[in-house]
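Quality-control log, excerpt.
Job 1 of 2 completed; input and output follow.
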Amino acid sequence: MRKGGSAVPPGGSGWEVLRHAGVTAALADGGLVEWCLALEELGAGCHDITAVRAGRAFLDAHPGERLPDAMTTAAPAVATADRDLLLCAAYAVGLGRACLEAAQNRAADRVITGRRQIEYQGTSHRLAEAALELALARITVWHAAWYEDQGRPDGHAAPAAAGASVETALTCAHTLVQAYGAAGTSDPDVVRLYRGAYALTQLCGSPRGLWQTAGERWLATA
């Protein structure tokens, strides 16, 4: 997936990434967990996922059919809203990972008053906390996707996973900006990742709204 993504410019179509990586056929027979793994990689490259979401919605609506070679940009079916939300949550995890990796590289290379930035306690703590938050969000997404694959969806799990993932991506984006400082405002890669993280609130919804939805669903079934 990562090798295939390098052949498509950042922000390019996620469907093209899948085709370059040769995994479209495999995903057609895969479960939601496998799709979430692929979406994390697409998020790490900030690739557009519109066609990928449409592909997943097509398979949900037409089980057992062959995945088309080309996908339209139609919106995902309403009936698969939670499954689609988990794809977007996995994408958010990938984007957060890209922000964190860029922040780690910057902190390792940047020298401030004779010491690498990562050697300062404040920076190392921020990176560690963001890494832990990212790992927990990824597990939350996988957990929810696994239950979806088993035909035992947990009503509140999808919005909870999305809330955790979007919040984590924003945390990692802030960590990235703090690592770069003022230099980040003129770095196109930093700006792209930062804007991508905030665009997740339109893709998935705000963390506050997602957590509220998860809480309401949990109370309704408790």
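Job 2 of 2 completed; input and output follow.
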Amino acid sequence: MSGGICVGLISGTSLDAVDAAACEFDAEGRWRRLLGTHSESYPSALRQELLDLQRRPDTAITLRDVTRLDAAIGDCFAQAAARLLEQLSLRPPDVDAIGSHGQTVFHDPLTIRSSLQLGDPNRIAARTGVRTIADFRRADMTHGGQGAPLMPAFHQAVFGGSPCVVANIGGISNITVLGAADAPVFGFDTGPGNALLDDWIQREKGLAYDRGGEWARSAEADRALLAACLRDPYLALPPPKSTGRDYFNLDWLARRTDALPADAAVIQRTLLELTVESLSRAIDAEAPKARELFVCGGGARNGFLMERLAQRLPRLRVADTSARGLDPDWVEAAGFAWLAWRTARGRPGNLPSVTGAGREVVLGGIYAP
């Protein structure tokens, strides 16, 4: 089969919006270019409901509510894809496939060994007229993998060629370690990214996020609280490993200490340092020979966070992924376009060296329009 255009859809653990990216690939699935992007915000009530569900995954919820959320999220994803296709004047025959990650509401790779992403792909296919591929995580988990992270395979395809680390700082942070061309690729979730930072500033100031990290910059970290957070057992686990907002949330923060510091800005700075330190320790341990760090996700837009990473990792050149030709805001959406291209051709999309799966597998199911 020839190359083609695929669209990737993703809403991550930060629930900022549904991101849609149209990408062109050659006949071998190699990256050609980003054709266009669109970001579709969730309705505020839906976003808050999803945030509450992420933070407290053991909250009782009815089957009626699960079905309602699946339909509502599917409609948001469908609208994001349809508006992008309209923006680019792309007709259904022009598009090979849509890859929809959906919205993760539950992820348990250790006990239940399954994951749940909502966002009915039938609605996306029907609204756009394009076959839609979804449910990317569970095939890997069925074969013993964590189902996450899935982006290292795409990072290898787009950013590979020289040794480096790619860090995706979304709600949770993860890294991909890329070595020489013949070296195995590996990666894992390192711990908190923006989730705790966003939750804290929303609670204290009613803001969605700390623009540029300026509120965190205004204070010094509480070293005792930081040390307590860094003692969390997850951070010391060896890879493969993955985590989520159901683990790292404000309830988790409250359990680190008997009393939080009185100054809310101090806590914001401490949480930023937690992201920096947990990410840096993972890079020091697993990528000691790397000399470059490329950041994508929302964390790439946090100027103070990027400064602190550069200060903490002076041996590395720290930049965002635009230095490698792909805007950091769109790496994940582009990654699911790439995974859709592979699934449509029956090619595996996971990396067992990353997820711990027993073998490579084709990811996701295909939904006809």
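Post-run check on job 2. The longest helix spans residues 63-87.
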